[in-house]
């Protein structure tokens, strides 16, 4: 029974890695890096349990035949599956903090992205008239004077 759960988790992990999304509940869909992390965790449960079973079999090989207790193997399986889901559920339920770029105040966005402001905001910000043209860059005043001298 536990092997079926482990194989299903492995297959769902492969599907999650291939699609890049994981449906935690009917309404919660995890996408991107968190989905890839969930897929890797789901895929790792089968090899980890297999490795622990090999170690347990090596330990049991030295025991007399009547002392083998498979209850501990089942408990190890449940423990690994429980730890995997204890990691998967918080990853799926936590949402990364997103910042809407339109909510950035003008003071923070002063010189970085002037193309985002409306024309009225530019006029308020620069204190220029509407038809005054673009603001010259530092060092452009000499170039503008030479150009004006050539035109005259």
Summarize the topology.
Blueprint: H1 2-19, E1 21-23, E2 29-31, H2 33-60, H3 71-93, H4 119-126, H5 140-151
Helix pairs in contact: 1-2, 2-3
Description:
This protein has helices at 2-19, 33-60, 71-93, 119-126, 140-151; strands spanning 21-23, 29-31. The protein is mainly alpha-helical. The chain has 2 domains: 2-93, no CATH class; 99-130, no CATH class. Helix 1 runs antiparallel to helix 2 and helix 2 (33-60) packs antiparallel against helix 3. The longest helix has 28 residues, at 33-60. The radius of gyration is 32 Å and the shape is elongated. The model has no long low-confidence stretch (mean pLDDT 76).
Strand-pairing-aware structural class: mainly alpha
Q: What is the subunit organization of this protein?
A: single chain
Please outline the major beta sheet.
Answer: 2 strands, antiparallel
Number of strands: 2
Query: How does the overall form come out from the CA principal axes?
Result: elongated
Give the terminus-to-terminus CA distance: 92 Å
Counting structural domains, the number is 2
Short description:
The chain is mainly alpha-helical. The chain contains 5 helices and 2 strands.
Provide tags for this entry.
single chain; 152 residues; mainly alpha; two-stranded antiparallel ribbon; 5 helices; 2 strands; 4% strand; elongated
């Amino acid at each position: 029974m536990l092997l079926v759960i482990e194989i299903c988790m492995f297959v769902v992990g492969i599907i999650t890695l291939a699609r890049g999304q994981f449906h935690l509940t009917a309404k919660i869909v995890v996408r991107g890096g968190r989905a890839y992390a969930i897929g890797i965790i789901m895929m790792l449960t089968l090899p980890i349990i297999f490795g622990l079973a090999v170690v347990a079999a090596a330990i049991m090989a030295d025991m007399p035949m009547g002392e083998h207790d498979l209850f501990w193997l089942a408990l190890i399986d449940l423990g690994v599956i429980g730890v995997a889901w204890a990691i998967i559920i918080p990853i799926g339920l936590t949402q990364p903090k997103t910042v809407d770029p339109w909510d950035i105040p003008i003071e923070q966005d002063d010189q970085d992205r002037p193309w985002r402001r409306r024309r009225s905001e530019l006029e308020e910000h620069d204190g220029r008239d509407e038809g005054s043209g673009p603001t010259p860059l530092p060092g452009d005043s000499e170039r503008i004077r030479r150009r004006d001298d050539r035109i005259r």
